[in-house]
Specification:
By secondary structure, the chain is α/β, with parallel strands linked by helices. Helices cover about 40% and strands about 20% of the residues. It is built from eleven helices and 13 strands.
Length: about 290
């Protein structure tokens, strides 16, 4: 009889232990840790969204790490990270590789409209730049355009926009977008190429200081000048407007997918707008008069 009672107790203990293990391993969007990989160009908006998510879900811890866009995508494919921020369109081969390796349908979670911008020192006489100048300048041995890296998101996006391979373009490099801004006055005949989110926060002191050091050149396309204001980003009129999106290898509703959902809701989109970028998901405000 005693042996039977012991066996029953052991049986129930084992059931409870298994249940606890399952509970520990069950997906959770409101607790846990993860790292988001993002190119330096989108770090500011990514950090702002991560901070917002952690405020709403205090049991989560999200670290934002910078890595070149292409390298971050490779890490995602190799399960070295759960989520990355992307801007360029993936090739059909890359999409196929993603779907085969990750075993998920390619569903980019678009959350903001950003832009690649062309900057000159504040005292430069240059007031605008044409698409033709950009095309020719990136084929010139003068290497008049300065990018933040040889495989940066800014270079990738410009090359894709011009229907070129990055390796076919001629350019100079100063590592880091902030470094380009701070050192550009040493090269008055050069044009810096950075991401708008580098200094797009309207009321941030550091962003304001960086903005005051340079002049953003409107881009002329087919006889029209386009700036990076909200309307031109929203309508994709500015020629180098790019849509930022999240890509994950998470197949369940865990912290990565929870973060993606949050970023695409009205609260997340308000954070995007406060960053000085155009929210991708627009929410209409309706006022009922009685």
């Amino acid at each position: 009889m005693k042996n039977s009672v012991k066996l029953l107790m052991l049986f129930f203990i084992s059931i409870i232990a298994v249940a606890c293990k399952k509970e520990e391993k069950s997906p959770s969007y409101h607790k846990g840790e993860m790292t988001i990989l993002t190119d330096e160009s989108f770090k500011s908006v990514t950090e702002a969204l991560a901070e917002g998510y952690m405020i709403n879900y205090p049991e989560t811890k999200i670290k934002v790490a910078t890595k070149k866009e292409d390298l971050g995508f490779i890490d995602l494919l190799n399960n070295k990270t759960r989520i990355v921020v992307m801007s360029r369109d993936l090739t059909p081969e890359e999409i196929k590789t993603y779907e085969e390796q990750i075993e998920l349908k390619f569903l980019p979670a678009k959350f903001a409209a950003d832009a690649v911008i062309f900057i000159v020192p504040k005292d430069s006489p240059k007031e605008s730049i044409t698409m033709d100048e950009i095309q020719k300048g990136l084929q010139s041995d003068n290497k008049e355009f300065i990018f933040d890296g040889a495989n940066s998101s800014n270079l990738n996006f410009v090359a894709q926009k011009l229907k070129k391979q990055p390796k076919d373009l001629k350019f100079s490099v100063i590592p880091g977008s902030k470094n380009i801004i701070e050192e550009l006055n040493k090269y008055p005949d050069k044009i810096g190429v950075i991401g708008l989110n580098t200094f797009s926060r309207p009321y941030d002191k550091e962003s304001e200081q960086l903005r005051n050091m340079v002049k953003i050149l409107p881009v002329e396309d087919k006889g029209k000048l386009y700036t990076t204001d909200f309307e031109n980003l929203r309508k994709m009129n500015y020629p180098f407007t790019r849509v930022l999106y999240f890509l994950t290898n998470e197949g369940n509703f865990n912290i990565a997918n929870g973060f993606i959902r949050y970023s695409c809701t009205q609260l997340g989109q308000m954070i995007v707008q406060k960053e000085g970028l155009q929210p991708y998901n627009l929410y209409r405000r309706e006022v009922q008069m009685r």
